[in-house]
């Protein structure tokens, strides 16, 4: 039996043979993350944008700002609406049409991670309390799915936040007329850089930054979001218990990635201001 057929018939045994030697089929060590690349301002028609590549996984984010009426329960807050789209071109698993359940789960997870980290103060999106606010529609499209879409989506969104500039709005409360001054653009204030790192358990071994194949074989999935060096969001699905030592190992790895992403964004900001 050739190796390709063996992998197809016995995927867990195939991976287990590698994992016992502390290596993965793609050559990475168990806790090794894939290369990460970020490009900023990639969509000129958007109010903010970025594209992120984690290994072979690619997610592009475009942000569109629109004026809206605030929620009556939060009259001084604007809106942040992330939406993850798993494009049919990203994987044979997806079909054209309404968002699949997986995409909806990703959208909610992105919203929760950004909210829990307090990345964006929604009060800065208020133009006139109870009357007019900004709504930021954040479209996140997965162009190539090879695992850890959530990680790439959150990094892409946070990177895109740093490119958002909103026009100054003059609002007449009597006539409800608005006038936009595009000569006076106000940058969006980003209070922190939340970064998510995913881990899975395969054949009893902890694996960081899994590929699609590794995600399918996982008995447990763990995502850790870190902002300002501290865990701000945590989610686990699956039955394998995680001891304190394993959780610390995951958190330490997530903190290292957060520092790396922050440096990449800070470098972009210095270049754009020079």
TrEMBL record:
GO CC terms in record: cytoplasmic exosome (RNase complex); nuclear exosome (RNase complex); nucleolus
Keyword NAD attributed: no
Family, as annotated: Belongs to the RNase PH family.
PANTHER family, alphabetized: EXOSOME COMPLEX COMPONENT RRP43 (PTHR11097:SF9), EXOSOME COMPLEX EXONUCLEASE RIBOSOMAL RNA PROCESSING PROTEIN (PTHR11097)
Domain Exoribonuclease phosphorolytic: 32-167, 192-256
Listed InterPro entries: ExoRNase_PH_dom1 (IPR001247), ExoRNase_PH_dom2 (IPR015847), ExoRNase_PH_dom2_sf (IPR036345), Exosome_comp_Rrp42_subfam (IPR050590), PNPase/RNase_PH_dom_sf (IPR027408), Ribosomal_Su5_D2-typ_SF (IPR020568), Rrp43 (IPR033196)
Highest taxon of source: Eukaryota
Protein name stated in the entry: Ribosomal RNA-processing protein 43
CDD domains noted in UniProt: RNase_PH_RRP43
Any single Pfam family the record assigns to this protein: RNase_PH
Organism the protein comes from: Anopheles coluzzii
Keywords linked to the UniProt accession: Cytoplasm, Exosome, Nucleus, RNA-binding, rRNA processing
Main location: cytoplasm
Subcellular compartments: Cytoplasm; Nucleus, Nucleolus
GO biological process, one term: U5 snRNA 3'-end processing
Molecular function terms from GO: mRNA 3'-UTR AU-rich region binding
């Amino acid at each position: 039996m050739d190796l390709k057929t063996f992998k197809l018939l016995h995927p867990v045994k195939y991976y287990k043979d590698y994992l016992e030697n502390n290596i993965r089929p793609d050559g990475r060590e168990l806790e090794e993350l894939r290369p990460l690349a970020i490009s900023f301002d990639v969509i000129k028609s958007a109010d903010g944008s970025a594209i992120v590549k984690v290994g072979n996984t690619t997610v592009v984010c475009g942000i569109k700002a629109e004026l809206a009426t605030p929620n009556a329960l939060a009259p001084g807050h604007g809106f942040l609406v992330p939406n993850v789209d798993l494009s049919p071109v990203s994987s044979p698993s997806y079909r054209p049409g309404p968002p699949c359940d997986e995409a909806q789960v990703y959208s909610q997870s992105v919203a929760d991670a950004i909210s829990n980290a307090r990345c964006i103060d929604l009060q800065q999106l208020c133009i006139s309390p109870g009357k007019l606010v900004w709504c930021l529609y954040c479209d996140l499209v997965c162009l190539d799915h090879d695992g850890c879409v959530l990680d790439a989506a959150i990094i892409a969104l946070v990177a895109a936040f740093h490119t958002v500039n909103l026009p100054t709005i003059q609002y007449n409360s009597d006539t409800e007329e608005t006038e936009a001054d595009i000569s006076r653009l106000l940058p969006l204030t980003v209070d922190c850089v939340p970064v998510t790192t995913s881990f899975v358990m395969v054949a009893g071994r902890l694996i960081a930054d899994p590929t699609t194949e590794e995600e399918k074989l996982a008995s447990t999935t763990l995502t850790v979001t870190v902002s300002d060096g501290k865990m701000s969001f945590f989610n686990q699905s699956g039955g394998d218990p995680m001891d304190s030592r394993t959780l610390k190992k995951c958190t330490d790895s997530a903190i290292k990635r957060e520092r790396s992403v922050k440096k990449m964004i800070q470098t972009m900001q210095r270049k754009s201001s020079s």
